[in-house]
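Here is an idea for our session: we take a single protein and study its fold together. To get us started, please write out a protein record for me. Start from the sequence, derive the backbone structure tokens from it, and show both lines together. Go ahead whenever you are ready, and we will take it from there:
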Amino acid sequence: MAKVVAINISTKKGEVKDPVNKAVFVENHGIEGDAHAGDWHRQVSLLAQESADKIRAKGVVEIREGIFAENITTEGIDLHTLPIGTRLKIGETLQEVTQIGKECHDRCNIYNTVGDCVMPREGIFTKVIKGGIVVPGDIIEVVDKK
């Protein structure tokens, strides 16, 4: 069963995000108080704990939720294999996958901190279709796979 491990936010783009106990997701905007929120296709970023574990396996032990600047750290779902257009029910929200991976900033703060960044390869981005609250432990359901 797929679930939310952590919700992470930051006030600046390209920075490590800090875990929070809950977050308010706003329709067509993203997470209230997060730097990536706005009227665009990458409102929310997700990264599987299993992807972060690949970096951990390389000997980088200082990996924690939010270190790759992901808003939602997940467990039990192979995010980067979901087709664009897939809809996910996460907590009270409905989100749609808009992008898989991304072009990495040239040696961004995350790369310099960790030594590698898995987000460009295995992170995904969504837009918020229906807002609501998400907390760690919430179930993630694929409700419409394109």
User: Anything to note?
Assistant: The chain is about 10% helix and 35% strand. The first helix runs from residue 49 to 56. The longest strand covers residues 93-100. The chain has a mean pLDDT of 89.
